[in-house]
Structures are given as structure tokens and as C-alpha cells.
Amino acid sequence: MPRTEESRMRSRPLARPRLLAALALAGGLAALAPAAHGAVALPSSPYSGPSAGAPPKPSGSSAATRNQLELGSRGSAVRALQRALRKRGMRVAVDGVYGPGTRTAVKKLQKSLRRRQTGVADAVVLRKLGVSLSRSVAAPRSSGKIAVFPVRGEYTYSNDWGAPRGQGSHQGNDIMADRGTPLVAADNGVISKISRAEQGLGGIYVWIRRADGVQYYYAHMHTIAAGLELGTRVSAGQMIGTVGNTGDARYGAPHLHFEIRNDWTPINPYPHLRSVDPNAGS
């Protein structure tokens, strides 16, 4: 068996005090040196469905240092808030995720308290409900907010996030539109993955990655605009293709499956779509 450097050092006689002293000094200096900084790079290939394996888990949550809960917050404090809202007759899921339903319930409570209806559970709301932020809560991730609506033309959609699907719960929103309806980039970014040939559940698809790492997934496309390829930069509103029904939607109505991911964590696109939908009511 080959001898390691450590075993060779141990086999040498201890009659070399100068060498041993030098080694000890070097070790001490190394221990005092600051550690090099840098993040471990994770695979950047977009998650294209169950066959691609589960996306990497996000980093662990830390205790709350904020004095409020808001859209995107997660943890036991959010769950406690949801339970308290249910006791007051609000229809809200107790899932530990501060989504649109929880925000709507908080707005109703704020209205009853004659406070500004922000949908944010601030210190006043939390105190009224007896919720303490000493419980574990993760801060909201970077916003998946989009700059423009991804479909140009006539369309319909609903908040079908989490609806049951053959491969699990729905992790995006389906925007129904006629085949050939233009699709545009929801924000500035680069093409991080693209397939002009039908592939997997998404069929013909495009992923756009924003500078902060948020990604937008366009699935079931009919065509992809000429000139787009891996690494191509696109601008918000730029046409990237057309609506279709490729992939596992081939026997259904044409539509865009639109998905938002932040650090591979799916985000409900619905509130972000509504915020830029030119046809949305006030």
C-alpha cells in the first residue's frame, strides 16, 4: 500500500528540530489565514420534468429578523398566521406559505381593523392575531415579478397553480390561446435552454434566465423565433415564438405553460401575471 505524506513524516526520526519547527509555524499561519470565499456552482440545466430528477434543494431557512410576514414568506410563523385567520372565519390554506390566498385574507382583516389594506401582516396584524415571529420563518426569495405579459393577443388563464396533474401538482399557470399566438420574453435575460424539436413533457420549449437567477419556462410552444439559441440575450417584450400544444399537451387545446423558478424553487406566476396583464381589472 502506498505510503501517505503523513506516514512518511511520522517515520522520520525526531532529530530534525528545525524542520519540525518550520512545519509547526506553517500550520499555525495556515490556520490564521482567512478562508477563500466563493459559492459552489450548481448545475444550471433547467428542470424539465420528473424524468430530469428533482431540482436542488434551496439553502436552509434562518430565524426571522423581520417584524412582518409578506408574500413569499414561509415557515411555522406563516402557518400560525393562517390558523389564526381561519379562526376568524377566513378561508385560507394552512400550508406555511404566504401566497395570494393568505394575502387576501390579511387584506380582509386589515379592512375590518380600518387599516390600510396592504396584504402584509405587519406588527399590528400579528399582535392582533397573537402570532409571534420568534417562530421559524424564511425570508421571501427574490421576486419572480415579470416586466411584461408573456402572451400577445387573446388569451384566458386562471390561478391553476397547484392543481393536480398526471406528474404531480401543477407548478405553473396555463395561458390558453390560439395556436400561433405570439409569445414574448417576460423580462430581460438570456436563453438558458431551448428545444426546437419536441422533447419530454414540455415539447418545444424555451427557458429564459434573468440576471438574478430567476428563470421563466415557456412550454408546449408551436414555433421558436429565428435567431434564438443557447446564450442569446433577449429583451422584455421581444417575440420568442408562438403558442402551441406540443409535448404532453399534443392532444389538448393550445396553450402556454408558463413557469417561474427561483433557485429551482417554483413560484406561483399568477400574481405576477396579473400585475402586468393589460386586460386585468383594477
Structure summarized in a few sentences:
The protein has helices spanning 5-11, 17-32, 76-87, 100-112, 123-129, 270-276; strands spanning 74-75, 137-138, 156-157, 164-165, 168-169, 173-176, 182-184, 189-199, 203-209, 215-224, 233-234, 239-243, 255-262, 265-267. The protein has 282 residues and is α+β, with helices and mostly antiparallel strands.
According to CATH, the fold-level topology of the domain at 156-276 is Glucose Permease (Domain IIA)
The portion of residues assigned to helices is 10-25%
Question: Stretches where pLDDT falls below 50 for ≥5 residues?
Answer: 1-17, 19-65
The largest pleated sheet is described as: 10 strands, antiparallel
Query: Which class best fits the helix and strand makeup?
Result: alpha+beta
* CATH architectural name of the domain at 156-276: Distorted Sandwich
Binned strand content: 15-25%
Q: What multimeric state do the chains show?
A: single chain
CATH class assignment of the domain at 156-276: Mainly Beta
Tally of helical runs: 6
- What's the overall average pLDDT, rounded? 77
CATH superfamily of the domain at 156-276: Glucose Permease (Domain IIA)
Based on Cα principal axes, name the global outline.
Answer: elongated
N- and C-termini, Cα separation: 76 Å
Please tag this protein with its features.
alpha+beta; elongated; 6 helices; disordered N terminus; 282 residues; Muramoyl-pentapeptide Carboxypeptidase, domain 1; Glucose Permease (Domain IIA)
